[in-house]
Amino acid sequence: MQNPAAAPAAGPLAGIRVLELGQLIAAPFATKILAEFGAEVIKVEAPKEGDPLRKWRKMHEGTSLWWYLQSRNKKSIAVNLKSADGLDLVKDLARSADVVVENFRPGGLEKLGLGWDVLSGLNPNLVMVRISGYGQTGPYRDRPGFGAIGESMGGIRFTTGSPDSPPARVGVSIGDTLASLHGVIGALMALLHVKTGAGAGQVVDVSLVESVFNVMESLVPEYDLLGEVRTRTGGALPGITPSNTYPSQDGGFVVIAGNSDPIFRRLMTVIGRPDLAEDPALRGNDGRSAVSGMLDGVIADWTRSRSVEEALAALDAADVPAGRIYSVADIVTDPHYAARDMILEAELPGGTRVKMPGIVPKLSATPGAVRWQGPALGAHTDSVLTDLGRDAETIERLRREGAIG
């Protein structure tokens, strides 16, 4: 496992300053990615409480393990946004920032006096990424929108789960993270526009609903032209055959993707059905999809007669894409994850060692790096304010008056 302390300190975003005005998942996950690739991310938190994520899920000595991951490489400053002096500090940071990322409800920053009109007036080259439930415009803009609502309204919940069960959710906050990824893409495109001299800064308007909707493939044209309402299909991939999850003799499951024409023929051959491999009606995906139930049954009959290991060995030898369904216990002991530096060793306060996920994507010349884990609340307040030109006496006064923590 890679030692993050030995990783390079710079990255492709070195020299880019990002101001994070967000909490929980969507905005902070976006800035985590930017920080991993070298951006200086200054996270503004409320004094005393900080980001609620600090107390979410499993804890280590009173701090969330999720926090240490989500906030690595970030600088934390504790600023009271209800204080005039605190707002002035944020405005000063925005003057020197390249990007602001926020996930307030639309209008929230405007109520504080930190809206786009104010911040872009201070810094015309500023890029502002705004992540919200429904976007900055439209009849639903003022509704509260968490990731679960984005997943529901974006279409993914309706297609997730078994046909005979209610719509299910993915076991992680997929709506938030999809919005984060769209926010990062938008930020980089807008930054390129600025840095190449093509124009000034702009707003990147990211909706959780639209971020989910954007990955829903051909959902809309299938409905519009054919009246097809895609729904839940369990482990199968609708209209792409065969691609499903199949039971094994030892109580496990094997995921098999045999849906390209040559792979299908190899799959049928290895399971002892060369007749199906050579059937002209099954040469193309459309013909196979018409009899998907039959094909799934044939494949399941074969997998039920073998252990997971036996099935995977035979499929691998036949060059058929297949795999087991990994738990986290499988992931952290897998040699491929280790070889790709996807499991990193980290140190928490007090010296406790812990495994953390690695960095995605892999850049050959300017890779991302972990420089430190999520910091204590306000750990960088004094140093960031000193960089802004505040002297020790001013910083002490601001703390005494409650503008900073």
UniProtKB/TrEMBL annotation:
<dbReference type="Pfam" id="PF02515">
    <property type="entry name" value="CoA_transf_3"/>
</dbReference>
<dbReference type="InterPro" id="IPR023606">
    <property type="entry name" value="CoA-Trfase_III_dom_1_sf"/>
</dbReference>
<dbReference type="InterPro" id="IPR044855">
    <property type="entry name" value="CoA-Trfase_III_dom3_sf"/>
</dbReference>
<keyword id="KW-0808">Transferase</keyword>
<dbReference type="InterPro" id="IPR050483">
    <property type="entry name" value="CoA-transferase_III_domain"/>
</dbReference>
<dbReference type="InterPro" id="IPR003673">
    <property type="entry name" value="CoA-Trfase_fam_III"/>
</dbReference>
<protein>
    <submittedName>
        <fullName>CaiB/BaiF CoA-transferase family protein</fullName>
    </submittedName>
</protein>
